[in-house]
Amino acid sequence: MQYAKCTSDNKVWEARPFSLLESSVLESKRLSLVCVECEEFAWFRKESSHGHPAHFCARHDDNCSLKIEYVMSDDKNDGSSVEVDEVKSGDKIIIQLDKEVGGVVEVVENTKPTNSLQGEGGRTFVLKGSNREASQQFTLKRILHRLVQSPAFRESNTEISFFKNSEEILISGMVNSIVAGFEKISKESHHEKMQFYWGPIASAKYTADGKLWLNSGEQYGSASVAIFEDVTQSFLSSFEVEDLEELAGAYILVYGRCMFSGGGSGKPVIWCAHPKYIFVRKYRSQQLQA
Protein backbone atom coordinates (compact mmCIF):
# COMPACT_ATOMS: atom_id res chain seq x y z
CA MET A 1 0.00 0.00 0.00
CA GLN A 2 1.09 3.57 -0.61
CA TYR A 3 0.34 5.14 2.77
CA ALA A 4 0.78 4.30 6.46
CA LYS A 5 0.39 6.22 9.69
CA CYS A 6 3.31 6.66 12.07
CA THR A 7 2.10 6.82 15.68
CA SER A 8 5.32 8.42 16.93
CA ASP A 9 4.73 11.62 14.95
CA ASN A 10 0.99 11.12 14.24
CA LYS A 11 1.66 11.68 10.55
CA VAL A 12 0.42 9.82 7.47
CA TRP A 13 3.40 8.98 5.29
CA GLU A 14 3.62 8.15 1.61
CA ALA A 15 6.07 5.33 0.87
CA ARG A 16 8.45 7.28 -1.38
CA PRO A 17 9.11 10.23 0.99
CA PHE A 18 9.33 7.76 3.88
CA SER A 19 12.04 5.81 2.05
CA LEU A 20 14.13 9.00 1.74
CA LEU A 21 14.29 9.65 5.48
CA GLU A 22 17.70 9.61 7.14
CA SER A 23 18.53 6.01 8.04
CA SER A 24 18.31 6.27 11.83
CA VAL A 25 15.05 8.24 11.61
CA LEU A 26 13.54 5.69 9.23
CA GLU A 27 14.55 2.77 11.43
CA SER A 28 12.89 4.43 14.42
CA LYS A 29 9.68 5.39 12.66
CA ARG A 30 9.20 2.00 10.99
CA LEU A 31 8.59 0.51 14.45
CA SER A 32 5.52 2.73 14.91
CA LEU A 33 3.52 2.11 11.73
CA VAL A 34 -0.18 1.26 11.51
CA CYS A 35 -2.79 1.10 8.76
CA VAL A 36 -4.30 4.54 8.09
CA GLU A 37 -7.82 3.10 8.30
CA CYS A 38 -7.99 0.18 10.76
CA GLU A 39 -4.77 1.08 12.66
CA GLU A 40 -3.55 -2.52 12.72
CA PHE A 41 0.18 -3.38 12.65
CA ALA A 42 1.94 -2.17 9.49
CA TRP A 43 5.50 -2.36 8.22
CA PHE A 44 7.72 -0.74 5.59
CA ARG A 45 9.62 -2.52 2.83
CA LYS A 46 12.47 -0.75 1.09
CA GLU A 47 12.89 -0.89 -2.68
CA SER A 48 14.05 -4.39 -3.58
CA SER A 49 16.77 -5.62 -5.90
CA HIS A 50 13.99 -7.33 -7.89
CA GLY A 51 12.51 -3.97 -8.83
CA HIS A 52 9.63 -3.77 -6.35
CA PRO A 53 9.22 -0.15 -5.22
CA ALA A 54 9.28 0.96 -1.59
CA HIS A 55 5.88 0.28 -0.04
CA PHE A 56 3.92 -0.33 3.14
CA CYS A 57 2.03 -3.48 4.13
CA ALA A 58 -0.34 -4.17 7.03
CA ARG A 59 -2.17 -6.93 8.90
CA HIS A 60 -5.56 -5.34 8.29
CA ASP A 61 -8.70 -5.79 10.31
CA ASP A 62 -11.17 -8.11 8.56
CA ASN A 63 -13.47 -5.19 7.75
CA CYS A 64 -10.76 -2.81 6.56
CA SER A 65 -11.38 -1.52 3.02
CA LEU A 66 -7.62 -1.47 2.39
CA LYS A 67 -7.24 -5.18 3.07
CA ILE A 68 -5.57 -7.16 0.29
CA GLU A 69 -4.82 -10.84 0.01
CA TYR A 70 -1.53 -12.22 1.31
CA VAL A 71 -0.16 -15.68 0.61
CA MET A 72 2.34 -17.85 2.43
CA SER A 73 5.81 -17.44 1.01
CA ASP A 74 6.83 -21.09 1.27
CA ASP A 75 4.89 -23.74 -0.59
CA LYS A 76 5.70 -26.68 1.63
CA ASN A 77 2.64 -28.35 3.16
CA ASP A 78 2.87 -29.98 6.56
CA GLY A 79 -0.78 -29.68 7.47
CA SER A 80 -0.86 -25.88 7.90
CA SER A 81 -3.98 -25.42 5.79
CA VAL A 82 -5.74 -22.11 5.29
CA GLU A 83 -8.39 -23.18 7.78
CA VAL A 84 -7.04 -23.64 11.27
CA ASP A 85 -6.95 -27.35 12.04
CA GLU A 86 -8.22 -28.44 15.42
CA VAL A 87 -6.56 -30.65 18.00
CA LYS A 88 -8.56 -33.77 18.68
CA SER A 89 -10.23 -33.68 22.06
CA GLY A 90 -7.91 -34.85 24.82
CA ASP A 91 -4.88 -35.17 22.56
CA LYS A 92 -1.52 -33.68 23.38
CA ILE A 93 0.80 -32.03 20.87
CA ILE A 94 4.49 -32.87 20.49
CA ILE A 95 7.12 -31.12 18.38
CA GLN A 96 10.48 -32.70 17.55
CA LEU A 97 12.83 -29.72 17.51
CA ASP A 98 15.80 -31.79 16.34
CA LYS A 99 13.91 -32.48 13.10
CA GLU A 100 13.17 -28.83 12.30
CA VAL A 101 14.69 -27.86 8.95
CA GLY A 102 13.62 -24.23 8.51
CA GLY A 103 12.01 -23.17 5.25
CA VAL A 104 12.06 -20.57 2.51
CA VAL A 105 11.29 -17.03 3.62
CA GLU A 106 10.09 -14.59 1.00
CA VAL A 107 10.02 -12.50 3.34
CA VAL A 108 18.19 1.92 23.40
CA GLU A 109 21.00 0.07 24.61
CA ASN A 110 20.38 -3.59 25.08
CA THR A 111 21.61 -5.59 28.02
CA LYS A 112 23.68 -8.62 27.05
CA PRO A 113 22.89 -11.61 29.23
CA THR A 114 25.63 -13.20 31.27
CA ASN A 115 26.99 -16.55 30.10
CA SER A 116 24.58 -18.36 32.37
CA LEU A 117 21.71 -16.96 30.30
CA GLN A 118 23.02 -17.79 26.85
CA GLY A 119 22.44 -21.53 26.71
CA GLU A 120 19.26 -23.48 26.37
CA GLY A 121 18.83 -23.80 30.12
CA GLY A 122 15.64 -24.97 31.72
CA ARG A 123 14.71 -28.37 33.02
CA THR A 124 14.80 -31.61 31.07
CA PHE A 125 11.86 -34.01 31.02
CA VAL A 126 11.26 -37.44 29.52
CA LEU A 127 8.01 -38.57 27.91
CA LYS A 128 7.72 -42.32 27.37
CA GLY A 129 5.49 -45.05 26.03
CA SER A 130 1.80 -44.56 25.35
CA ASN A 131 1.84 -40.87 26.29
CA ARG A 132 3.90 -40.10 23.22
CA GLU A 133 2.02 -42.48 20.94
CA ALA A 134 -1.29 -40.83 21.83
CA SER A 135 0.02 -37.37 20.98
CA GLN A 136 -0.28 -35.49 17.70
CA GLN A 137 2.96 -34.67 15.87
CA PHE A 138 3.23 -31.01 14.88
CA THR A 139 6.02 -28.74 13.60
CA LEU A 140 6.98 -25.20 14.61
CA LYS A 141 5.55 -24.06 11.28
CA ARG A 142 2.18 -25.58 12.08
CA ILE A 143 2.16 -24.22 15.64
CA LEU A 144 2.97 -20.70 14.43
CA HIS A 145 0.24 -20.92 11.80
CA ARG A 146 -2.30 -21.78 14.47
CA LEU A 147 -1.10 -19.05 16.82
CA VAL A 148 -1.54 -16.46 14.08
CA GLN A 149 -4.95 -17.71 12.97
CA SER A 150 -6.65 -18.86 16.17
CA PRO A 151 -7.14 -16.70 19.29
CA ALA A 152 -8.75 -19.74 20.93
CA PHE A 153 -5.58 -21.80 20.43
CA ARG A 154 -3.42 -19.06 21.97
CA GLU A 155 -5.49 -19.18 25.17
CA SER A 156 -6.07 -22.94 25.22
CA ASN A 157 -5.19 -25.46 27.92
CA THR A 158 -3.97 -27.94 25.30
CA GLU A 159 -0.89 -29.82 26.51
CA ILE A 160 2.13 -29.27 24.30
CA SER A 161 5.66 -30.71 24.56
CA PHE A 162 8.72 -29.52 22.66
CA PHE A 163 11.36 -32.26 22.39
CA LYS A 164 15.08 -31.44 22.26
CA ASN A 165 15.76 -34.90 20.82
CA SER A 166 14.10 -38.32 20.66
CA GLU A 167 13.72 -38.55 24.46
CA GLU A 168 14.36 -35.25 26.24
CA ILE A 169 11.74 -32.53 26.47
CA LEU A 170 12.92 -28.92 26.31
CA ILE A 171 9.69 -27.50 27.72
CA SER A 172 6.21 -28.88 28.33
CA GLY A 173 2.92 -27.45 29.57
CA MET A 174 -0.31 -25.83 28.44
CA VAL A 175 -0.18 -23.60 25.37
CA ASN A 176 -1.34 -20.57 27.34
CA SER A 177 1.40 -21.01 29.93
CA ILE A 178 4.51 -21.73 27.82
CA VAL A 179 3.81 -19.75 24.61
CA ALA A 180 3.35 -15.97 24.89
CA GLY A 181 2.58 -13.38 22.23
CA PHE A 182 4.86 -10.34 22.20
CA GLU A 183 1.97 -8.11 23.31
CA LYS A 184 1.40 -10.33 26.36
CA ILE A 185 4.96 -10.12 27.67
CA SER A 186 5.29 -8.41 31.05
CA LYS A 187 8.19 -7.89 33.41
CA GLU A 188 6.26 -9.50 36.27
CA SER A 189 5.53 -12.72 34.35
CA HIS A 190 8.36 -13.12 31.86
CA HIS A 191 11.58 -11.39 32.97
CA GLU A 192 14.36 -14.03 32.90
CA LYS A 193 11.84 -16.70 31.86
CA MET A 194 12.70 -19.27 29.18
CA GLN A 195 9.75 -20.33 27.02
CA PHE A 196 8.36 -19.80 23.51
CA TYR A 197 7.43 -16.32 22.34
CA TRP A 198 5.85 -15.19 19.07
CA GLY A 199 4.84 -12.08 17.16
CA PRO A 200 5.44 -9.96 14.05
CA ILE A 201 8.73 -8.44 12.90
CA ALA A 202 8.83 -4.77 11.87
CA SER A 203 12.56 -4.57 11.11
CA ALA A 204 15.79 -6.56 11.23
CA LYS A 205 19.37 -5.37 11.63
CA TYR A 206 22.85 -6.41 12.75
CA THR A 207 24.69 -4.94 15.70
CA ALA A 208 28.42 -4.24 15.61
CA ASP A 209 29.20 -7.46 17.47
CA GLY A 210 27.48 -9.62 14.83
CA LYS A 211 24.17 -10.33 16.55
CA LEU A 212 20.97 -10.20 14.52
CA TRP A 213 18.09 -8.23 16.02
CA LEU A 214 14.50 -8.80 14.92
CA ASN A 215 12.32 -5.96 16.21
CA SER A 216 8.57 -5.74 16.66
CA GLY A 217 6.54 -2.54 16.75
CA GLU A 218 5.13 -0.45 19.59
CA GLN A 219 1.80 -2.30 19.42
CA TYR A 220 3.68 -5.43 20.48
CA GLY A 221 5.56 -3.96 23.41
CA SER A 222 8.59 -3.17 21.23
CA ALA A 223 9.79 -6.72 21.87
CA SER A 224 12.94 -7.84 20.08
CA VAL A 225 14.52 -11.20 19.33
CA ALA A 226 18.32 -11.25 19.58
CA ILE A 227 20.02 -14.08 17.69
CA PHE A 228 23.58 -14.79 18.79
CA GLU A 229 26.33 -14.34 16.21
CA ASP A 230 27.23 -18.05 16.17
CA VAL A 231 23.61 -18.88 15.28
CA THR A 232 22.88 -16.08 12.81
CA GLN A 233 24.29 -17.68 9.67
CA SER A 234 22.57 -21.00 10.35
CA PHE A 235 19.30 -19.14 10.83
CA LEU A 236 19.65 -17.12 7.62
CA SER A 237 20.72 -20.19 5.66
CA SER A 238 17.86 -22.34 6.97
CA PHE A 239 15.29 -19.79 5.84
CA GLU A 240 17.18 -18.73 2.68
CA VAL A 241 17.29 -15.08 3.68
CA GLU A 242 19.50 -13.03 1.37
CA ASP A 243 18.36 -9.56 2.44
CA LEU A 244 17.21 -8.64 5.95
CA GLU A 245 14.40 -6.59 4.39
CA GLU A 246 12.80 -9.92 3.48
CA LEU A 247 12.03 -10.40 7.18
CA ALA A 248 9.93 -7.24 7.57
CA GLY A 249 6.35 -8.27 8.24
CA ALA A 250 7.19 -11.88 9.09
CA TYR A 251 5.80 -13.73 12.09
CA ILE A 252 8.33 -15.44 14.33
CA LEU A 253 8.08 -18.22 16.92
CA VAL A 254 11.17 -18.56 19.10
CA TYR A 255 12.34 -20.27 22.27
CA GLY A 256 14.64 -18.24 24.46
CA ARG A 257 15.15 -16.33 27.67
CA CYS A 258 13.27 -13.04 27.94
CA MET A 259 15.29 -10.24 29.52
CA PHE A 260 14.09 -6.67 30.00
CA SER A 261 16.81 -4.23 28.93
CA GLY A 262 18.07 -1.38 31.09
CA GLY A 263 18.32 -3.55 34.16
CA GLY A 264 14.66 -4.48 33.89
CA SER A 265 13.21 -1.05 33.09
CA GLY A 266 13.40 -1.24 29.30
CA LYS A 267 11.88 -3.35 26.56
CA PRO A 268 11.71 -7.17 26.43
CA VAL A 269 14.46 -8.95 24.51
CA ILE A 270 14.24 -12.68 23.76
CA TRP A 271 17.69 -14.22 23.44
CA CYS A 272 17.86 -17.14 20.99
CA ALA A 273 20.88 -19.43 21.17
CA HIS A 274 19.83 -22.35 18.95
CA PRO A 275 18.82 -22.37 15.23
CA LYS A 276 16.40 -25.28 15.75
CA TYR A 277 14.33 -23.30 18.24
CA ILE A 278 13.08 -20.66 15.85
CA PHE A 279 10.67 -20.49 12.92
CA VAL A 280 9.73 -17.59 10.66
CA ARG A 281 6.55 -17.35 8.61
CA LYS A 282 6.28 -14.60 6.01
CA TYR A 283 3.43 -13.47 3.81
CA ARG A 284 3.75 -11.47 0.65
CA SER A 285 1.20 -9.50 -1.31
CA GLN A 286 0.04 -11.18 -4.50
CA GLN A 287 0.33 -7.76 -6.12
CA LEU A 288 4.11 -7.91 -5.69
CA GLN A 289 4.73 -11.44 -6.93
CA ALA A 290 6.84 -11.80 -10.03
Describe the secondary-structure layout:
Blueprint: E1 3-6, E2 11-14, H1 15-19, H2 23-29, E3 33-34, E4 42-45, E5 55-58, E6 70-72, E7 93-96, E8 125-126, H3 130-133, E9 136-138, H4 140-149, H5 151-154, E10 159-163, E11 168-174, H6 175-178, E12 179-181, H7 187-190, E13 193-200, E14 203-206, E15 212-215, E16 224-227, H8 229-238, E17 251-260, E18 268-272, E19 278-281, E20 283-285
Parallel strand pairs: 7-9, 7-10, 12-13, 16-18
Antiparallel strand pairs: 1-2, 1-3, 4-5, 6-20, 8-11, 10-11, 13-17, 14-15, 15-16, 17-18, 17-19
Commentary on this structure:
The strands form five sheets. Strands 12, 13, 14, 15, 16, 17, 18 and 19 form an eight-stranded mixed sheet that branches. Strands 8-11-10-7-9 form a five-stranded mixed sheet. A three-stranded antiparallel sheet has the order 2-1-3. The protein folds into two domains: 3-68, no CATH class; 93-288, Nucleic acid-binding proteins (OB fold (Dihydrolipoamide Acetyltransferase, E2P), Beta Barrel), CATH 2.40.50.140. With 290 residues, it is of the alpha+beta class. The radius of gyration is 19 Å and the shape is globular. 17% of the residues lie in helices and 30% in strands.
